[in-house]
Amino acid sequence: MKKHVMTAVCILLAAACVCLSAALVLSARDEDGQGAGTTPGLATASSSDIQFKLALLHLYKEATDVTLVLPYTTVNLTQTAVTRAFIGSAEGEAAIREMNERVDRTLNSAFETMGDITDKYAAVLKEYGISSASSYQTKLTELQNMFASLKNASNELISRTRTLINRMNGDYDAYYTSYLEQLSDLSGKIETYGDTLENEYLALLSAISDSYETIQ
């Protein structure tokens, strides 16, 4: 029992660190005036280039937001399930069932949003006649790859959580280590991709501001 308690504490601390990291990113974006869905008031500008970049700006805002949702879904879902499983096998089975239900309701919804964002991105490129050789096409591919990586890492963490809970009554050390490794992998990707998307957002914001000044 003491071993279970110590393991549960470690899981809770790890999850808290991931969630705190995401919260700090969101807080920093809010302080910059960019975290509450705000965008420059350039919707009436006549420049096609500005309108194109503004459309992508909105999409990068959505992409950043959905990426920062994952610590509060995948991480919380798994750490809650594992912690409950330490109580006993019956609780472990119930925890897996509830985790599966919440994955369907919350995590899969985030994945659907990611798909919607890349579809919208592709539609914007088509609407503005962006060449397939353009760097924006490359950025779309990069965005698709980031989302695919996050989805795979999240699903793998869910899978390892199920395995750990099912092995809880035996020698689970190896499965616990595997769980923590995947938690670290997902956490690292969330942080890295979150920073990448934020930088893309800021680069577009700067480009829009410069272009707007040029046509005045």
Question: How far is it from the N-terminal to the C-terminal residue, by CA?
Answer: 70 Å
Mean pLDDT: 79
Kindly provide the radius of gyration, computed on alpha-carbon positions and rounded to a whole number of angstroms: 21 Å
Count, helices: 6
Order of helices and strands: HHHHHH
Beta-strand percentage? under 5%
Helical/strand content category: mainly alpha
Write structural notes for this entry.
With 216 residues, this protein is mostly helical. Helix content is 83%, strand content 0%. The chain is built from six helices and no strands. It has helices spanning 2-31, 48-67, 70-85, 89-127, 135-166, 173-214. Helix 5 packs antiparallel against helix 6 (173-214). The longest helix has 42 residues, at 173-214. 31% of the residues are buried.
List the helices and strands and how they pair.
Elements: H1 2-31, H2 48-67, H3 70-85, H4 89-127, H5 135-166, H6 173-214
Helix pairs in contact: 1-3, 1-6, 2-4, 2-6, 3-4, 3-5, 4-5, 5-6
Quick structural gist:
This protein has 216 residues and is an all-alpha fold.
Keywords:
single chain; about 220 residues; mainly alpha; 6 helices; disordered N terminus
